[in-house]
Amino acid sequence: MNLHSLLATLYRPTANKKIIVATTLDFSSDLYAIQSWAQHYGTELRLISSRDGYTLTDEDIEAAFQDDVALIVLPTVLYASGQLLNIERYAKLAQEKEIILGLDAAHSIGSVPHDFHNWGVDFAVWCSYKYLNAGPGACGGIFVHEKHFHRIPALKGWWGHQKNTVFKMNSHFTHEPGASAYQISTPSILALAGLEGSLQEFKKVNIKNIRTHSLQLTAYLMELIDEYLPEFQIVTPRAEECRGGHVSIRHVHARLFSLALRHRNIVPDFRPPDILRMAPLPLYNPNLELD
Q1: What are the residue boundaries of the Aminotransferase class V domain, all occurrences included (predicted)?
Q2: Which residue among 31, 63, 94, 168 has the highest number of C-beta atoms inside a 10 angstrom radius?
């Protein structure tokens, strides 16, 4: 819903700039939303392809920043492989080309430091049930750059109305300042409680320290895989600057390994046809739990 709302507001195709760009490795729900707005306006969606089926190259991504492109949506971290993209680099290019840049930060928020505002990112969306530890069904989050604060959301909702007058039941929509304007309806109090508890813990630590520990954990996990599971192929980039917070391995029987691990109370994530994802949580997982 958040991505739909932001695309409805910020995607404004013109005769000369109307193309939307995404990647073939995006999470499917992102692509469904993007396809919806390309179809709504009768415009083209271009997809950046992967050379190996798991990762993207800077060369291929930068080649997509063409003069006829109006908006690009990229993941901060690829959900299947765990590759971390150089968002600061692409944000600079987007500004040079006058392209709106949106991000899906679901697989990095809570494990990777971000500086969306200073990078000039136009908007970002994410969920809070992964590294933010808010639990299943937790509410998502958004970032909207202040240069867009003057815009009235295209999809107006009750909870995006100015809070001090919302119960006056005015017929005219007066939006809240900032990203709050994009709230649609009353949020689940139970879902917010889970997120509030998690964020209280995050306030006690520095995200840079979390990132350092995350890199240590994933590096150690890959060392263990190399030593004890040589038949598995690690598809996550080894370089720290290209690695998010999870490790993905490839094996023809990945699904069976996933079931076997669950039987031992270890919960990985299987992605067809042959990917097994594992994410040691830097907020509370020590190296000992990987042994």
Answers
A1: 12-266
A2: 94
